[in-house]
């Protein structure tokens, strides 16, 4: 029996043992003490995916619903945690990913089509986008600022729904329904930790409400804290030598790893390290170790030492693995009934979040400068340490975020047959990001002193202050040198809508129902980077842009009974985006995007217990505002000028490399928005069956296919240079023929993005988005639900959900292969739970999730030989280096897969009194953790973050009091 089988057997045995430990009872089911009871409202039944109110929950489009009780039973504490566990969720940026633009945000990526292609609704209304762009490119929604204490249920509709909801509803819609019209109060206190260490968590909430004869008030307050994880909390991934041994080079295997530089003084001409005074590294309290900059020539066996320096004791010890956060949320919802048919409502939700994160500690690069004593050209590198800072919190970066959403409206019944609603709202989201870095001028003055002159080559001359350079900083000195780069951003949306629905006329097979909606909204955003960023001090990520636009929309929907057992659903919608206004000093001329979408669905119920359904819909996504209005963000980068390489003939003699200064030089690289982008367009199809097999047992199976065209993609620097050379010469840098991958107009777009000087050299490169790519995905969703109430053994609930990815195709360029890339992704996902209560004081839930295997990160790479040498994949893994001992040998290609990843959660609750209950949670029971699933040929990160995380098993206890 393998390890997985042992885990499965153990989990089943554990579940049965825990179940048998509690005596059965015939008392009525009561899993929570006196849950607040629902009060009567004017609302009819509303289902996400349609504006027509209906009696049946299941309709033409598949909708997954997660109740607040299910969220708690399965062990999840936040809205994002449960959504991230759903089978429809794809992969997103990990907290550990270097250069993440949004470390405190939690995006959802339905069907792996991209976070911006999933529409978030809260109580059926749009909210403000997260202000910072995902990956520095596009807008998206943050799911970590929604208070779980206020959630009644979450509806997930996957597939195109633009005909109902407009832009962004390409991969699907997530509608978070918050509590309303409740009577009673409930306080929850929850605390927990990770058994591997770190990641302490605490959650306190108070939710409840009051109702009267013609009014209601629902409220919720919540505070949560989750501590961050850094490399020091996980010794298995705090240093370079924690990577899989199969990826160690020959030098690593013989002599170990060169530690990262902590303190080093280097000859700029010879690259020789000048040894620090004896005992220097030991003065830093274990943060630095004695290091030598070794270089090993695997062909000759020669080992050279470029000198001594102070290395970092643990290369990744202070790198953030998981962002920590403190979140405070408040929610209010109130209604007032006027007469018999009209009701006013208003709601306010607010959230404040402080996120703490880091990649590595602040450091300073000094020089090059001329040493006043020796005349040598030197430079110095000095990393600041956790010990000098006085703790990780003073080393880390942090975000301060605030969001709020205010909406109000009137609704009622007109002429005893039409439901209507008029609403207005405003939503705003602000982010202040503080990145700790070192002020270059102050650090230069502290470590080097004032310049004593200027050398002939223009560099400054300094007499190094060795007493400072080679000594730890005090806490106050750390504060003097460290600067907080402050980037601010905000986004907002003002919106108003009117909807009307009801029965139009009696048709031949039943009433024909309709719904119509008219909406108008104005949205905007602003990114304001620190003006000193990369001027006074180095900062990795700088985003700039801003502006606003107006959206107007109108939609119409019909539900038409065709037969007593067959009905059709048709909808159409028109959306217009225009009136753009940029915040840039130079106005941006942006046109108008107008899109019309439609959907059609069929529901056939040949018998009462069986539903056959299908939908066909179009969808669209208007260009993100940052795609259109992003302002230039400039950096100096060294590039190979591929056009000059080809036109000069250098490519024929192998002269297109960093040794040719006519080809290899530094240019200005900007990223900016593209004003003339078109909307992305999509088409989706679903077809399936819902079968109530027997009482309490139901099964649904649905096929889906989503196609997306005119996808917006950011062109990077190297793509632009390669395409410019190809457009102008018809040749690639390797000498082959160049094929135009983008069709008519592509070369015009490319040539406009490369600005050249009069001598033909590149002055600047303009990166940015264009309409280019297309994508298609298809698969099967299946769900089994079972409820059983027994007289002697209590009540059972079983839920099992399955997804199989049948196809995933993506073409960045039209000349790209249209092959099925499903093997590059998680091909199957399963989640399920079994809940049991004994009808009395006890209840238990076992939850599991299985993510199928996927390709290794470096799939297709060449395996290393036993001595650590790795041939090139470009040479088909054949060693071509004539000086190498493996000349002519071929290593195997690595076509490995990683996974599957299987997670088990266990929760149990005991009702102490009618008003008090205690819950215990164990999440990730078998401690499935990333560093135990390291990839064979992968560096830092070590494991696949789509499947695994570094947290491991978490345990928590919760006290619930209802009054």
From TrEMBL:
Family that this chain belongs to: Belongs to the TonB-dependent receptor family.
Main location as per UniProt: membrane
TonB-dependent receptor plug domain mapped to chain residues: 58-173
The gene coding this protein: btuB_3
Keywords tagged on the record: Cell outer membrane, Membrane, Signal, TonB box, Transmembrane, Transmembrane beta strand, Transport
Record's protein name: Vitamin B12 transporter BtuB
All residue ranges annotated as the TonB-dependent receptor-like beta-barrel domain in the record: 355-925
Pfam families membership: Plug, TonB_dep_Rec_b-barrel
PANTHER family, alphabetized: PTHR47234, TONB-DEPENDENT RECEPTOR
Membrane protein topology class: Multi-pass membrane protein
Secretion signal, residue range per the UniProt entry: 1-28
Cell compartments where the protein resides: Cell outer membrane
InterPro entries given in the database record: Beta-barrel_TonB (IPR000531), Beta-barrel_TonB_sf (IPR036942), Plug_dom (IPR012910), Plug_dom_sf (IPR037066), TonB-dep_rcpt-like (IPR039426)
UniProt cross-references to Gene3D superfamilies, sorted A to Z: TonB-dependent receptor, beta-barrel domain, TonB-dependent receptor, plug domain
One cellular component (GO) term of this entry: cell outer membrane
């Amino acid at each position: 029996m393998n390890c997985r089988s042992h885990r499965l057997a153990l989990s089943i045995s554990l579940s049965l043992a825990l179940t048998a430990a509690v005596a059965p009872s015939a008392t009525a089911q009561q899993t929570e003490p006196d849950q607040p009871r629902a009060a009567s409202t004017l609302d009819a039944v509303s289902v996400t995916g349609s504006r027509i109110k209906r009696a049946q929950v299941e309709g033409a489009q598949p909708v997954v619903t997660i109740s607040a009780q299910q969220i708690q039973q399965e062990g999840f504490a936040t809205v994002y945690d449960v959504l991230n566990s759903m089978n429809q969720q794809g992969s997103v940026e990990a907290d550990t990913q270097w250069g993440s633009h949004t470390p405190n945000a939690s995006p959802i990526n339905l069907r792996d089509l991209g976070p911006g292609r999933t529409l978030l609704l809260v109580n059926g209304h749009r909210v403000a986008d997260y202000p910072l762009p995902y990956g520095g490119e596009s807008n998206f929604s943050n799911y970590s600022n929604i208070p779980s204490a206020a959630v009644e249920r979450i509806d997930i509709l996957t597939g195109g729904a633009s005909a109902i909801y407009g832009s962004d509803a390409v991969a699907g819609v997530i509608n978070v329904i918050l509590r309303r019209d409740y009577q009673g109060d409930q306080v929850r206190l929850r605390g927990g930790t990770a058994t591997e260490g770190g990641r302490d968590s605490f959650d306190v909430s108070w939710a409840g409400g009051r109702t009267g004869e013609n009014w209601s008030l629902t409220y919720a307050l919540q505070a949560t804290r989750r501590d961050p994880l850094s490399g020091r909390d996980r010794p298995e991934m705090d240093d370079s030598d924690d990577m899989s041994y199969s990826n160690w080079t020959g030098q690593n295997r013989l002599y170990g790893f060169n530690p990262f530089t902590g303190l080093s003084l280097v000859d700029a001409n010879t690259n020789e390290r000048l040894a620090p005074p004896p005992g220097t590294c030991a003065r830093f309290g274990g943060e630095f170790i004695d290091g030598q900059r070794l270089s090993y020539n695997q062909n000759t066996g020669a080992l050279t030492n470029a000198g001594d320096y102070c290395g970092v004791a643990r290369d990744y010890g202070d790198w953030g693995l998981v962002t920590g956060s403190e979140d405070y949320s408040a929610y209010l919802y109130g209604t007032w009934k006027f007469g018999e048919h009209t009701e006013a409502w208003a709601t306010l939700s607010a959230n404040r979040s402080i996120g703490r994160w880091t990649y590595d500690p602040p450091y300073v690069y000094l020089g090059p400068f001329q040493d006043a004593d020796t005349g040598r050209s030197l430079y110095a590198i000095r990393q600041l340490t956790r010990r000098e800072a006085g703790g990780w919190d003073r080393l880390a970066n942090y975000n301060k975020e605030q969001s709020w959403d205010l909406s109000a409206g009137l609704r009622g019944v007109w002429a005893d047959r039409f439901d209507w609603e008029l609403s207005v709202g405003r939503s705003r989201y602000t982010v202040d990001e503080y990145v700790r870095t070192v002020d270059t001028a102050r650090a230069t003055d502290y470590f080097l002193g004032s310049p004593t002159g200027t050398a002939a080559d223009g560099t400054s001359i300094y007499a190094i202050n060795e007493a400072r350079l080679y000594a730890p900083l005090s806490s106050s000195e750390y504060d003097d040198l460290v600067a907080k780069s402050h980037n601010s951003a905000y986004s907002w949306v003002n919106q108003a809508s009117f909807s009307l629905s009801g029965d139009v006329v009696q048709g031949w097979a039943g009433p024909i129902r309709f719904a119509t909606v008219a909406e108008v909204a104005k949205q905007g955003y602003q990114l304001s980077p620190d003006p000193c960023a990369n001027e006074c001090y180095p900062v990795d990520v700088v985003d700039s842009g801003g502006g606003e636009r107006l959206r107007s929309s109108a939609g119409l929907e019909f539900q038409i009974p065709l037969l007593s057992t067959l009905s059709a659903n048709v909808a159409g919608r028109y959306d217009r985006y225009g009136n753009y206004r940029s915040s840039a000093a130079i106005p941006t001329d942006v046109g108008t995007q107008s899109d019309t979408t439609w959907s059609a669905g069929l529901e056939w119920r040949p018998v009462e217990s069986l539903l056959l359904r299908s939908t066909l819909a179009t969808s669209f996504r208007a260009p993100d505002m940052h795609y259109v209005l992003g302002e230039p963000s400039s950096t100096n980068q060294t590039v190979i000028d591929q056009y000059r390489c080809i036109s000069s003939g250098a490519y024929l003699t192998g002269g297109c490399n960093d040794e040719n200064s006519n080809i290899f030089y530094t240019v200005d690289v900007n990223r900016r928005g593209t004003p003339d982008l078109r909307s992305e367009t999509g088409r989706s199809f679903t077809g399936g069956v819902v079968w109530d097999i027997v009482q309490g047992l139901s099964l649904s199976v649905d096929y889906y296919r989503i196609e997306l065209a005119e996808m917006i993609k950011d062109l990077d620097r190297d793509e632009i240079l390669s395409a410019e050379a190809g457009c102008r010469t018809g040749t690639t840098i390797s000498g082959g023929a160049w094929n135009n991958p983008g069709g008519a107009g592509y070369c015009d777009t490319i040539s406009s993005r490369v600005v050249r000087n009069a001598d033909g050299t590149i002055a600047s490169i303009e990166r940015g988005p264009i309409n280019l790519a297309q994508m298609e995905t298809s698969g099967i969703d299946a769900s089994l639900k079972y409820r059983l109430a027994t007289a002697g053994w209590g009540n059972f609930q079983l839920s099992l959900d399955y997804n199989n990815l049948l196809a995933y195709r993506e073409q960045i360029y039209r000349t790209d292969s249209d092959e099925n890339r499903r093997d590059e992704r998680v091909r199957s996902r399963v989640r399920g739970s079994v809940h049991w209560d004994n009808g009395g004081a006890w209840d238990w839930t076992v939850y599991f999730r299985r993510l199928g295997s996927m390709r290794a990160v470096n799939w297709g790479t060449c395996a290393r030989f036993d001595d650590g040498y790795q041939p090139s994949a470009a040479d088909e893994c054949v060693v071509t280096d004539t000086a190498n001992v493996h000349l002519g040998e071929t290593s195997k290609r690595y076509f490995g897969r990683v996974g599957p990843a299987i997670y088990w959660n266990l929760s149990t609750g005991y009702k102490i009194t009618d008003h008090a209950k205690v819950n215990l949670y164990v999440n990730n029971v078998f401690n499935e953790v990333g560093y135990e699933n390291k990839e064979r040929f992968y560096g830092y990160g070590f494991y696949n973050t789509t499947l695994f995380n570094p947290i491991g098993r978490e345990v928590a206890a919760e006290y619930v009091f209802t009054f």
